[in-house]
Amino acid sequence: MRIARFSIDGNVAFGAVEGSSAPGTTDGLVLDIIKGIPFADFELSGTKVPLSKVRLLPPVLPNKVVAFGRNYAEHAKELGNEVPEAPFAFFKPSTSVIGPGDEIAYPSFSQELHYEAELAVVIGRMCREVPRERVKDVILGYTCANDVTARDVQKREKQWARAKGFDTSCPLGPWVETDLDPSAIAEGLTIQCTVNGQQRQLGRTSEMIHPIEDLIVNISEAMTLLPGDVILTGTPAGVGPLSVGDEVAVTIEGIGTLTNKVIKRG
């Protein structure tokens, strides 16, 4: 099931996305409004709204976004970094999250903004110290993410809070796909990033150094994960610069496409 969060006529709701459409369009897609929230038992209301008539919002509002860096060997290499022996985590605040179609505001304190296409895991239930064999039980589903990074600030300040945590630095969407298990697909899922229609990144989730199960075991040893929390799993090689006016799109096989435009921060 594809679960979207949306607004219509000033009201916010969740809905199940139904139908199919041509790439880059919403023609033919409708939302069956959910009675309740997707983190508990819910029913479909049967009330359907064309997707073209609503505004898609970030699919969840996470309490925290836990991101794992250098989880693809070629990406670590392209930036001249060592591959970490253990998962390497950092945080992006909830205020960094935006949704599909929202604008990425180029921060005034950076001159080198980069895209990073990533598979995002959405947590479905409160959990702590999750054993590896139970990881699938705590996952609601998966969505697309862009770990937008002020690369010059990251290099200069070493600590990544400002470089990766500024407002609008965490686009998520377009929805959460619940009927997907990347670890069950030997070749993994394709992750692609385009800028103004030109391909910049192309990788597969099977290239992760530390798989999803290990990432969730690692972070849940330290802290409680809450429903709606998001885990970013790292980016393939090919990261590069964004400029004001660029349109950046992250496409993940089996999920969909997340598109955002870069604007000058006002």
TrEMBL record:
Domain of life according to the entry: Bacteria
Domain Fumarylacetoacetase-like C-terminal residue range list: 64-262
GO molecular function annotation: acetylpyruvate hydrolase activity; isomerase activity; metal ion binding; ureidoglycolate lyase activity
Metal-binding listed as a keyword: yes
Domain Rv2993c-like N-terminal: 1-59
Pfam families in alphabetical order: FAA_hydrolase, Rv2993c-like_N
Keyword annotations: Lyase, Metal-binding
EC numbers for this chain: 4.3.2.3
A biological process term (GO) from this entry: carboxylic acid metabolic process
UniProt KW Membrane keyword: no
Protein name: Ureidoglycolate lyase
Species: Streptomyces jeddahensis
High-level lineage: Bacteria, Bacillati, Actinomycetota, Actinomycetes, Kitasatosporales
